[in-house]
Design a protein that fits this description.
single chain, mainly alpha
């Protein structure tokens, strides 16, 4: 009958509205989850970038430290070589003075 048909159509409309509302709610929930995942992804990405940046800075500082040590070692070696050169120069001058004294003495004996 008409009344039964009307009741059936109204029931279908209510079911459809209920399902539509459920779909909208599910879509909202999915959008919220996607937003949370994006935020988590960006947060994790920022943490990784910061960790990499800190690692690069530390590596750079370590390398600078090694270079400074090498420069200091080279400075010490240069200083040692300069001292050795000054010492040898003084030795040579002493030998030259002795040679001059010996020559003068030898010439006077002749």
């Amino acid at each position: 009958s008409n009344e039964d048909l009307r009741q059936l159509v109204m029931g279908l409309h209510e079911d459809m509205a209920s399902q539509k509302k459920a779909v909208q709610q599910a879509n909202k929930e999915k959008e919220r989850e996607i937003k949370q995942l994006r935020e988590l992804y960006h947060s994790e990405k920022e943490k990784e970038v910061e960790t990499m940046r800190e690692r690069l800075i530390q590596d750079h500082l370590d390398e600078l430290g090694k270079l400074q040590q090498a420069v200091q070692k080279d400075k010490e070696e240069v200083s040692t070589l300069q001292q050795n050169l000054i010492s040898k120069d003084e030795e040579l001058r002493e030998i030259q003075r002795n040679m001059t004294t010996w020559k003068d003495a030898t010439i006077q004996k002749l």
